[in-house]
From TrEMBL:
This is Phenylpropionate dioxygenase. One of its GO terms (biological process) is 3-phenylpropionate catabolic process. InterPro entries: NTF2-like_dom_sf, Rng_hydr_dOase-bsu. It holds the Pfam family Ring_hydroxyl_B. Belongs to the bacterial ring-hydroxylating dioxygenase beta subunit family. The lineage of its organism: Bacteria, Pseudomonadati, Pseudomonadota, Betaproteobacteria, Burkholderiales. Keywords: Dioxygenase, Oxidoreductase. It comes from Paraburkholderia dinghuensis. It comes from the Bacteria.
Length: 163
């Protein structure tokens, strides 16, 4: 059964998206990682309108284990890619609840700008983030975070942190 969330639930879902971005900006990667469901995925498609991340090449297609490995690498004081250390900032439009799927969760759409700086270099990306959130043990969890970059099919530089 598809139903529309009430205003309090909608605000809680929207607050979750804002909180997730803040955790990334503050480099609280462990708390961010804990927002993912056990079967959670972080996906950045390689081409516009890509339908499948498993059977097609993607910029990133990572489960919780791969995300944890990336987080541990970022914490390593000798990580060459983090000399000097990267910093990031998310600027989000207000998230919109696109679909309410009852027990299957909620889907949100959020246009964004993302900047990542390291030393004298700054990268800027824009696109749309799509969250699939599910209730798990009384808390919201990310089943899938899909980042559709505006220029996903361009030759892109290496992004060190998480969008």
């Amino acid at each position: 059964m598809i139903h529309s969330p009430d205003s309090a639930l909608r605000e809680a879902l929207i607050d979750f998206v804002y909180r997730e971005a803040r955790l990334l900006d503050e480099k609280n990667f462990d708390a961010w990682h804990n927002l993912f469901a056990e079967d959670g995925l972080y996906w950045i498609p390689l081409v516009p309108n890509q339908q499948d991340g498993l059977n097609h090449v993607s910029l990133m297609y990572e489960d919780r284990l791969l995300l944890k490995l990336r987080i541990e690498r970022l914490k390593e004081p000798r990580a060459f890619s983090q000399q000097p250390e990267s910093r990031c900032q998310h600027v989000l439009q207000r998230p919109e609840v696109e679909a309410a799927e009852g027990e299957a969760g909620y889907r949100l759409r959020t246009p964004f700008f993302y900047a990542e700086a390291r030393g004298d270099e700054q990268l800027i990306f824009t696109g749309v983030v799509r969250h699939h959130l599910v209730g798990e043990n009384g808390a919201w969890r990310i089943r899938e975070k899909r980042i559709d970059l505006l220029n996903c099919d361009a030759a892109l530089p290496s992004v060190q942190l998480f969008m």
